[in-house]
Amino acid sequence: DAGVIQSPRHEVTEMGQEVTLRCKPISGHNSLFWYRQTMMRGLELLIYFNNNVPIDDSGMPEDRFSAKMPNASFSTLKIQPSEPRDSAVYFCATGDGDRDTQYFGPGTRLTVL
Amino acid sequence: DQQVKQNSPSLSVQEGRISILNCDYTNSMFDYFLWYKKYPAEGPTFLISISSIKDKNEDGRFTVFLNKSAKHLSLHIVPSQPGDSAVYFCAASDDYKLSFGAGTTVTVRA
A9 to chain B: nearest residue by CA? Predict the structure, then answer.
């Protein structure tokens, strides 16, 4: 199994631009999580999907952030417009219902200039 | 509010010796605890977990201890190996939601 796949691995963009991060979960996993890691706040949950349905988006910082999961094989996290304070590493993680164990992708390092 | 705290940002240990990482939590609703290991430029990798109904779980060189009354858990790595040099995150679960500590950077010296 290839594990959780995220793309791109690195993204550098200018303030005001739209950014789209992508995640392909492990096949058969029905839970998907988007996290953001920063020096100041550590790892924080942004949004949680179960069976492609958003269950908890209370961690999404503001309306500039949106996430979708159109099918069991794909999810996106979009930031529009991006701001320098959005610079962070964004992780996608998935779970197979084995209690709460989550399996993380390699992350996307986003830099907004 | 940090519900999961790892008060030691770093730990240096000699190869072959024991590494002990500590974690404290404040939310009594947490009922499942996990440790993750992270190498630079990679995502966190699940290492070991423990349910709140247990006080110890062992997997090879890794043992996690849970003291519910003290709201404290620890990870023991014996013996420590150079490949164990990484950042270790403690996480606690309330239903599906994982709350993470800030991490402890472990350096294993040859």
Answer: B41
